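Why should sequence recovery work at all? Because a backbone constrains its sequence more than one might expect. Tight turns favour small or flexible residues, buried strands favour hydrophobic ones, and helices have their own preferences. The token representation captures these environments compactly. In the example below, the structure is given first.
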């Protein structure tokens, strides 16, 4: 059986490679709750279930031609894994005042709670650099 840290690393790689549908759903418990804290792109934050999260992954593929994640720090205790990451997204379409091919940078903290080898809760804190 994989450790939660191994699953978390695999999950980040899957997102980075543009996984959607079942390829992404396999990481989550069926009743997952994903909270994105307020940030520049989502000023009110958001809460997603599995269906909404999978729809968001599809949207992400349309918005970004490439996404890269660099894990800076990872801490694991019990059923929890915390990740500190740097993210770079290259736009596929115009986003606000940015033309396609522009770079957006984000410093991210993600807190994952696992249950039975799957992500049951995810809280994401984004610090998106100005553009």
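From this structural description, the recovered sequence reads:
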């Amino acid at each position: 059986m994989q450790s939660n840290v191994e699953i978390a690393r695999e999950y980040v790689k899957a997102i980075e490679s543009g996984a959607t549908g079942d390829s992404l759903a396999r990481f989550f418990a069926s009743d997952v709750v994903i909270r994105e804290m307020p940030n520049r792109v989502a000023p009110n934050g958001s809460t997603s279930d599995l269906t909404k999260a999978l729809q968001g992954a599809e949207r992400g593929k349309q918005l970004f031609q490439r996404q890269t994640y660099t894990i800076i720090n990872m801490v694991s205790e019990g059923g929890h894994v915390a990740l500190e990451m740097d993210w770079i997204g290259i736009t596929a379409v115009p986003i606000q005042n940015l033309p396609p091919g522009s770079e957006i940078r984000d410093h991210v903290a993600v807190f994952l709670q696992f249950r039975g080898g799957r992500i049951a809760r995810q809280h994401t804190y984004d610090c998106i650099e100005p553009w």
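A few observations help interpret the result. Residues 50-63 form the longest helix (14 residues).
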